[in-house]
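Minutes, project check-in

Agenda point 3 was the complex the collaborators sent over. CS summarized: two entities, 639 residues total, and the question is how they sit relative to each other. Sequences were read into the notes so everyone works from the same version.
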Amino acid sequence: MMVSLRGNRVIPVLALMALALLWSLDFVSVQPNRIAPGNGLGLLAAVGLPWALTLTAALLACALLALRPQQPAYWPILWLVSLLVLQLPLSLAWSIERHIGADMPYARVGIGAGYWSLLFLLGLLLIELQQRLRLARAWLLGSGIALALLLWWLAPQDWLEPLALLREYSSRRSQFAAALASHLGLVGGAVGLSLLLGGAIALLLQRYPGAQKGSIGLLSFIQTIPSLALFGLLIAPLSYLSAQFPWLQQLNIRGIGWAPALLALIAYSLLPIVRNTCVALAEVEAAVIESARGMGMSPTQVFLQVRLPLAMPLIIEGVRVTSIQAIGLTAVAALIGAGGFGTFIFQGLGQSAMDLIILGALPIIALALLADSLFSLLAERFYSGVGDDRAE
Amino acid sequence: MSQPALLRGGGWQPLLWLALLLAAALGLAELEGLFRLIEPDSRTVIYGRAAFIDLLGSHVLLVALAAGVSSLVGVGAAIMVTRRWGADFLPLVSQLASIGQTIPPVAVLALAVPALGFGSGPTLFALMLYGLLPILRNSLAGLRGIDPAVLEAARGMGMAPLQVLWQVELPLALTVILAGIRTSVTINIATAAIGSTIGARTLGDPVISGLVIGNTAFILQGAILIGLLAVAVDSLFEQLQRRAPGA
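CS then shared the predicted structure for the full assembly.
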């Protein structure tokens, strides 16, 4: 093909963009204390000439290896990019070593735009390489988890201690754990309950197909209502109910808090689950069901052993969409006092504490990406399982 | 029979919702007696820091600007990577569009602050960036979903590449592209409302201010307006998609 003759043009573009941003933007910033404004340091000032030249050489090598005509050297590039990713915490530590003395106990180091750009572009390079080398998505997930574990191990080490993000974390370890628990609790509760409720609705709609269009229409109508509005609309009726019935207050059901958040999350979660389950159950071929009946299976057996397993991949896809959506919406629910990582974001916005905002936003992104990969893998597993059954 | 009236098609629907939205934006402030019932103990029961109609105007402006820019960039990028000379970038761009949509919009909005600061500008940037993804993804799906035989026939008729793009590809992909713009605008109306927390002037202001001072009437006023805006715009797109060629 023509494309392979002139090598890969994507990797050089990404590598050169990384170089340009790395050299033109601040790599890190140094703050004397939490309140004082940060002082930005470019790449050269932050890590010194040898380190800066090594990074530059590695990125240039990626570009050149990709331009090799006929067959770009994807595996060596993958090694180089992996090394560049692994050096990310080290280059931070080295900047800290160079700029924070023992006489500056309150000083903190912020991560600069150049550093974030490098991280982002290395991510794009990894996606490009994964595509070209046809590596499984599981491979990306695995290396992401490995990197996270490495960071988890590095984080408590002394040499990263002045990092502003870590300072924000270490001053609210227990709040972080509580936020993780309430975020996962709300998402899990909403997805679990709407799986039960949505499954029941989908089964009812199988029996009364006439109501299908209207119900799906109503659920998509709910989906168009913005989260802030739906949370807001639930506050007034819930606080009225809670004022009328004291036993609700004992359950901590009030106008604000977890109750309106969970209700709204379930309302949003129903559409993907009901729609996918309906489509999935309807798509199981009549001939398959007929032959199952012919084998003497009871209606319950046909449902549990034939229709449900065959419908599973699409149902899991519904759960995947719902979980990702719920992870984001729970972040907004922090505004109505439901807890979760959104609390850090909105506290950080209130105090203009940038690192606190990042401390809230990064786990939300990580959770969403993790849920996406896990459910995609699970759905793939079911697809291949279905294929095997058919082959027998 | 089973379909609720508000969901049935008809050209009058967007007009009805728009009329309701305008009536609410202009008239909510007159319903003091009604909101007094919800919030009997507060000194004020009507959000007074800005007129609702002004907030509606700046909310719509933010979303419209973002939608305009991200439609141009999204469709443009999709056209580029589906040409022969840009095909190298196709796998990366389509992966980026789908992985990017996994990231919650509120996280993008939050991260705009450390990068760009507070205000309407950073909000607009976050809306454009995030709103780009569904448009890009759908444009790619629309352009790549066209039967190659159709393109071959168009070329065989002696059409120049630009003519094929303009007269064949884009019209055939239009409904799918419109669906992407609709998703993007729906997400952005919701995200712009949350943009109040980073200092943008939107219909989220009454809700946030009501949450801060514990005034349910303010929250309700903002929520009603945001909800009406979202439903009105969505029904407008519903009609547009029905009238698009090939729908």
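Noted in discussion: The two ends of chain A are 38 Å apart (CA to CA).
Follow-up: revisit at the next meeting once the mutant set is ready.
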